[in-house]
Amino acid sequence: MMSNSKVLVLGATGGIGGEVARHLADTGWQVSALARRQVVGEHPAVHWLLGDAMDASAVAKAAKGCEVIVHAVNPPGYKNWAGLALPMLEHTLAAAKAQKATVLLPGTLYNYGPDSFPLIDEAAPQQPLTRKGVIRVAMEQRLRAFADEGGQAIVVRAGDFFGPRAGNNWFAQWVRPGKAVTRVVNPGSCGHQWAYLPDLAKAMVEVLVKRQQLPAFSNLHFEGHWDSDGKQMANAIADVARRYTGKAPKMTGFPWAWVPALGLFNETLRELNEMRYLWQQPVRLDNSQLQALLGAEPHTPLHQAVEESLRGLGCL
Question: Where in the numbering of this chain does the NAD-dependent epimerase/dehydratase domain appear (predicted)?
Answer without folding.
Answer: 7-212
